[in-house]
Design a protein that fits this description.
alpha+beta; 20% strand; 319 residues; elongated
């Protein structure tokens, strides 16, 4: 291979654009390197060192036969500074879902960029899109769409069973907020299953932080006779900060919903008991419902909750 092209490949960590090569060497050197099997074309105008090929399956697109990081850098080189990794690829960069082998690279560009889909590359052109904050941020040295818009754009692409858990995790990890997600959804007026996403954001906005809490909100803890619970109520006790699942402030009752796998560890159960005792010391009654009871006996759980709240009514307690 021509030494000039080799030097460009080393400097580009195995990648080089045709424009860069033509600035350094005549066009025939590119053809010679390709015929010799030393240089591969990954995308129009983007080439790589042939040693980058990892998958021997020649039926796959060339971009799918290199490591994912190489494929992403090649896609960005193809965009020539006008694109950012998006959708399922951005979700991987954000660390929320790893892209499985064979899944395409996703790239967002401004409308009118003139670039289109290629094998193993999905391009979306967006009106008003700019490769700059707040629409695009840099993670791991790569331009990527902001997380709230990424999650919204991924909603119709993900298996239904995975959708809610990813958004809940992002909110619980404080990577985004229900309000920012709702604002991102407003930017996308038409999308499949938009109503389901909107409903989930309503529940997250109300303070629900798990699928069980959402189920309880929809089927048990809202309606006639029930107060408006403060979800994830922040309580400071000395040097300790606690968050209460569902707090009825007037009655001083905190309802905790224990997931299907909760308290398998005796040590975790001991932590909960100590926490409950600490809350009792300031007059807060903790009521716990298991996943099994909540889902199998919703009417009974509702009646028990109403009875507990009635007995804790401020009027009764004053008497």
């Amino acid at each position: 291979m021509d030494a000039r092209i080799q030097a460009l490949l080393v400097g580009g960590e195995g990648l080089v654009t045709r424009r860069e090569m033509l600035r350094a060497a005549p066009a025939w050197t590119i053809q010679t390197a390709r015929r010799a099997g030393r240089l591969i074309r990954l995308l129009p105008g983007v080439y790589g060192d042939a040693t980058l090929i990892r998958d021997a399956d020649v039926d796959l697109p060339t971009l799918a036969r290199v490591e994912r990081d190489v494929a992403r850098r090649a896609a960005l080189a193809y965009a020539d500074g006008r694109g950012a990794l998006s959708r399922l690829t951005a979700l991987d960069v954000w660390g929320l879902r790893r892209q499985p082998p064979g899944e395409s690279v996703y790239l967002d560009l401004p409308r009118g960029s003139g670039l289109r889909d290629r094998p193993h590359l999905v391009v979306a052109q967006r009106s008003g899109f700019a490769i700059a904050p707040p629409q695009v941020v840099t993670r791991g040295g790569l331009p990527v769409t902001r997380l709230d818009r990424t999650l919204v754009d991924c909603w119709p692409l993900l298996p239904p069973v995975d959708r809610s858990s990813l958004l809940i995790r992002a909110v619980n990890d404080r990577l985004t907020t229900p309000q920012r997600l709702a604002a991102a959804l407003a930017e996308v007026p038409r999308m499949p299953d938009r109503e389901a996403l909107s409903g989930l954001l309503d529940r997250l906005g109300a303070g629900c932080r798990s699928p069980l809490e959402i189920w309880g909100h929809d089927h048990v803890f809202t309606g006639a006779g029930l107060p408006t619970f403060t979800r994830q109520a922040r309580l400071r006790m000395g040097a300790r900060t606690m968050y209460l699942d569902m707090f009825a402030e007037a009655e001083r009752v905190n309802i905790e919903l224990d997931g299907a796998t909760s308290h398998g560890d005796p040590a975790e159960r001991e932590i909960d008991l100590r926490r409950d005792a600490l809350l009792a010391s300031v007059g807060i009654l903790v009521v716990r419902f298991t996943h099994r009871r909540l889902t199998a006996e919703p009417a009974q759980v509702r009646q028990e909750t109403l009875a507990i709240l009635a007995n804790r009514s401020p009027r009764l307690m004053i008497k």
